[in-house]
Amino acid sequence: MSYQFELRHLTYFLAVAEELHFRKAAERLFISQPGLSRQIKQMEEMLGVTLFVRDKRNVKLTPAGMYLKKEVAYIFNHLDFTLKQTKLVDEGISGEVRIGFLGSAMQSILPDLLIKADEVLPKIQFSLEELSNSAQVEALEKDQLDLGFVRLARVPETLQLKPVFTDRFSLVIPSGHKLNKDSFTSIAQVSEEHFILFSSDYSSLYYDQIMSICEDKGFTPKVSYKSVHALTIFKLVESGLGVAIVPSSLQLGFDMRVKFLEIPNIPQEATLYACWKKDNRNPALQPILESLNEL
């Protein structure tokens, strides 16, 4: 039997691949479940492969299905982006650059980049989204972001890293804490305190750096809380639930009852990297990278 392969087959496939449930996928697509099953069967027959393993309880992707899911998601994302870029070009705009960032980037390099871009590249638009390191890497690989700002030592080979800002580390303590700028000489002075740290999910490199700052001074911190959000960490410190170690630039933009004391006599530094996909096809990205080099 011969069928004409159409874009709708990919749409139906992706819905089932994401839901792994034919009824839920059918409801999402506003079609009947038997109709969806027929469309998937047609697609499998056209390709000559099995995409799903089905039984009464479960739907699973085959290896071929997992591969196709990744590629179809990329195709749809790129198609949506291309259509949006086409509309922008028609309106006289050079395009859009999608940027992901960690909170500390907004306190350091990112505002300067946006100001410079607005001066020399006024026809480029930007969309900004604060994301974790891992979420940025995933989005860059899927072409859902054009540029990221991360704290990672290694990324997949498809991505490029460039150091753009080096920061010191600061101890964050409640405003009423006995330590101050003059009396603070070593992180060992808070070795008996409870620590509130960025989770290793935020950045395993960054988490290891913080642990090494303490271990170099002869103690392992007692970690009571972890978070991926600076505001949450500062609020816990403000409430007297512990102390924290963060990049010094994070003290900008917050008005809370905490003190930031730069940690003396440590070799560790917090490096912020720009990250992008080597084969990114967005023509608006290259002038942004050139502007980044000039900062």
Q: Could you explain the architecture of this structure?
A:
This protein folds into three domains: 7-72, Orthogonal Bundle (Arc Repressor Mutant, subunit A), CATH 1.10.10; 93-164 and 272-293, Periplasmic binding protein-like II (D-Maltodextrin-Binding Protein, domain 2, 3-Layer(aba) Sandwich), CATH 3.40.190; 169-268, D-Maltodextrin-Binding Protein, domain 2. Helices cover 40% and strands 23% of the residues. It has ten helices and twelve strands. The protein has a five-stranded mixed β-sheet with strand order 4-3-5-12-6, sandwiched between helices. Helix 8 (204-215) links the parallel strand 8 and strand 9 (222-227). It is globular. The termini are far apart. The mean pLDDT is 89.
Give unreliable regions as ranges.
none
Pattern of helices and strands: HHHEEHEHHEHEEEEHEHEEEH
From the 3D structure, determine the CATH topology of the largest domain. D-Maltodextrin-Binding Protein, domain 2
CATH superfamily of the largest domain: Periplasmic binding protein-like II
Percent of sequence in beta strands: 15-25%
Report the sheet with the most strands, covering strand number, pairing sense and barrel closure.
Answer: 5 strands, mixed
CATH architecture of the largest domain: 3-Layer(aba) Sandwich
CATH class placement of the largest domain: Alpha Beta
InterPro entries: LysR_HTH_N, LysR_subst-bd, WH-like_DNA-bd_sf, WH_DNA-bd_sf
GO molecular function, one term: DNA-binding transcription factor activity
GO cellular component, one term: protein-DNA complex
Keywords: DNA-binding, Transcription, Transcription regulation
